[in-house]
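Budget justification aside, the reviewers requested a transparent look at the raw inputs and outputs of the sequence design task funded under Objective 1. We therefore reproduce one unedited record. The lines immediately below are the structure tokens for a 678-residue chain.
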């Protein structure tokens, strides 16, 4: 004779469960657990006692608006002698009595999202189920504890921008555990068009991180849906803010959620990638932001970027194909049951809207190893990502008579692929994970497998060599020289033309105004000789031309009069902003008000107006941005200094992210790591 338990009430034990499941930073007001790991609920019985072998309890777990057995979004189960971590199961794990502990476990492949659990006739409670990278049965399982701390639990990090010669660390507040962020992330899933078309099938698909990552890649941009961010790469930012103004993902996600899912304006690649990283970590998928320097944008899938220049070496706007100074995407960690086991591990997804994939602006996930091995048939979007790091660059000069001829150029794409190092703010170079060394046998074999022509850019003019050299001190506000260096490796005198120019450029390759130009029609080089030609870059000339990216493109064009051979050298330089210094005043303690003294020096030969400091940090500023505007101008060589107050809410290592903005010095970033005591 069996008898169903008559439950008067229950306690979800959120303090214990959330801490045990590493979700307590989300708060302990509701139950948030990870799949494949058990959690305990205290049951208070109305009448009778729990009797092993006699007492029963029917349980029904449901997720989504149309739960059903067919999609695995509704599961019925009863009491077992012990929990089974491979399926939905429940067991009483305390002695008999009128108060018992019900231990429940979900399978490691259960769909993630909001759930209701019905207990017999006694009622139901709600909880959130996340991916579990600590569970060996979960396809997002990651063995290294240090990597889990970095790629799932770390709420702040570093994104690399700048240039391959000067990777600039930009601090970012991911804030995946801040109040309201998990709900915004779950809302992103519920706003995706696949969910709107077939909620049951979409919720079932949420068991698979490949599916979820692809949804996020589409939903972080708003091009086809009610996605989070609108991108803008040229013109002003009326109706929104500059992508440079963001310090973290929290304000972006909260703004999207509050506005009824209106797109937040504006983002560019590092912002799209950072928001995707926040959402992935919030859902339990290990994730990191990656920067690819000299990143190719191949629009016709031929793995070749064709560039055209005029007879001064300046680019002609003849193609949508570009080489971005850098481009950011995300990598997510998971196994790929749909592919060869060799392709488990890091997977590239790119939420920046560039090209359509299956009719939607999204990209990935595609295994990093598939890119390295040239396996272009691998799902998803392998050819596009392969081209970003491996495309050939072919340059043609368009002469005044309209004819074109081939130019020898040494441009290489896919340089210094970078991510934040585990456990430190340093840069880890992961280029070797994406490609074999340039010119190696393995690289050639990869291109053969990819059915790609031999690398044209390996051809060099050995007779005349051209390069661009720069000085070490290239700070915004300074005047400095850059140099075109020509070397004659032949036994005869060479007469040449050298055009050496500079233009402001945005990080995605769009050209701006001229910053200085020199055209030498009669450069003569003796056998074995070298000529070093300086070009002076004056702040008075380049200051008004610079974009917020602080980038200048240098291009030197050399024409050998004896045979009309043409050589092009291109180099981007990034001008350094001043350092922001942050002093913490007082002893950093949980729930104790702290002050930060923030200082920046004006390096420009002109005053700064409309100066504003702002700070934010996970568990430091309450999910808000704190701003302080200066009432006076800051003269040349003077310091801007403010004192700003905030109250930490959690102990541990935290990152205070700082931004300084003004009319002439825009969005200078800085940060300070702070250890908050209990």
């Amino acid at each position: 004779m069996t008898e169903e338990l008559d439950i008067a009430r229950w306690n979800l034990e959120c303090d214990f469960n959330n801490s045990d499941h590493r979700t307590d930073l989300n708060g302990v007001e509701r139950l948030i657990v990870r799949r494949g790991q058990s959690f305990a609920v205290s049951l208070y019985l109305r009448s009778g006692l729990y009797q092993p072998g006699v007492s029963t309890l029917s349980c029904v777990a449901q997720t989504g608006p149309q739960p059903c057995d067919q999609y695995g979004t509704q599961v019925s189960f009863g009491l077992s002698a012990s929990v089974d971590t491979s399926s939905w199961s429940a067991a009483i794990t305390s002695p008999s009595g009128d108060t018992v502990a019900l231990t429940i476990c979900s399978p490691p492949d259960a769909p993630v999202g909001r759930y209701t659990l019905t207990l017999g006739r006694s009622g139901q409670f709600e909880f959130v189920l996340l991916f579990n990278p600590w569970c060996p049965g979960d396809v997002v399982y990651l063995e290294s504890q240090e990597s889990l701390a970095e790629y799932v639990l770390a709420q702040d990090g570093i994104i690399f921008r700048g240039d391959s010669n000067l990777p600039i660390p930009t601090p970012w507040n991911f804030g995946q555990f801040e109040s309201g962020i998990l709900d915004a992330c779950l809302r992103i899933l519920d706003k995706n068009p696949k969910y709107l078309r077939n909620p049951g099938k979409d919720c079932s698909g949420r068991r698979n991180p490949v599916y979820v990552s692809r949804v996020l890649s589409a939903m972080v941009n708003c091009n086809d849906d009610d996605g989070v961010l609108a991108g803008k790469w040229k013109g002003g930012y009326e109706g929104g803010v500059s992508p440079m103004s963001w310090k973290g993902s929290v304000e972006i996600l909260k703004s999207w959620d509050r506005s009824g899912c209106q797109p937040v304006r504006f983002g560019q690649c590092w912002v799209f990638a950072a928001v995707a990283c926040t959402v992935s970590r919030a859902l339990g998928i290990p994730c990191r932001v990656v920067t690819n320097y000299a990143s190719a944008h191949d629009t016709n899938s031929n793995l070749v970027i064709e560039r055209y220049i005029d007879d001064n070496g300046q680019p002609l706007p003849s193609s949508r194909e570009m080489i971005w100074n850098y481009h950011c995407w995300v990598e997510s960690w998971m196994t790929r049951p749909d592919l060869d086991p060799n392709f488990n591990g890091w997977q590239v997804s790119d939420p920046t809207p560039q090209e359509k994939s299956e009719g939607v602006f999204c990209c990935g996930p595609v295994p990093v190893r598939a890119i390295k091995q040239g396996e272009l048939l691998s799902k998803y979007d392998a050819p596009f990502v392969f081209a970003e790091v491996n495309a050939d660059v072919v340059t043609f000069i368009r002469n005044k008579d309209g004819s074109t001829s081939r130019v020898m150029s040494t441009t290489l794409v896919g340089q210094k692929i970078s991510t934040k190092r585990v456990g430190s703010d340093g840069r880890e170079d992961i280029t070797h994970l994406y490609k074999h060394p340039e010119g190696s046998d393995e690289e050639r074999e990869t291109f053969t497998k990819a059915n790609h022509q031999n690398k044209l850019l390996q051809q060099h003019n050995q007779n005349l060599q051209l390069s661009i050299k720069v000085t070490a001190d290239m700070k915004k506000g300074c005047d400095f020289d850059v140099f075109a260096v020509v070397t004659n490796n032949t036994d005869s005198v060479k007469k040449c033309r050298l055009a050496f120019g500079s233009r402001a450029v945005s990080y995605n390759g769009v050209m701006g105004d001229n910053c200085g130009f020199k055209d030498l029609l009669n450069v003569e080089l003796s056998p074995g000789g070298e000529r070093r030609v300086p070009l002076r870059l004056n702040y008075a000339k380049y200051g008004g031309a610079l974009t917020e990216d602080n980038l200048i493109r240098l291009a030197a064009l050399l024409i050998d009069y004896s045979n009309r051979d043409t050589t092009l050298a291109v180099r981007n330089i990034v001008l350094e902003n001043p350092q922001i210094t942050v002093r913490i005043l007082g002893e950093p303690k949980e729930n104790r008000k702290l002050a930060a003294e923030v200082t920046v020096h004006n390096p420009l030969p002109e005053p700064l107006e409309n100066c504003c400091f702002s700070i934010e940090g996970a568990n430091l500023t309450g999910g808000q941005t704190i701003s302080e505007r200066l009432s006076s101008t800051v003269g040349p060589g003077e310091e801007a200094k403010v004192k700003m107050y905030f109250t930490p809410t959690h102990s541990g290592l935290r990152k205070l992210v700082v931004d300084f903005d003004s009319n002439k010095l825009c969005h200078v970033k800085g940060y300070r790591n702070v250890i908050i005591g209990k």
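The two ends are 54 Å apart (CA to CA). The chain has four domains: 3-130, 145-449, 460-574, 580-676. Computational costs for records of this kind are itemized in the attached budget.
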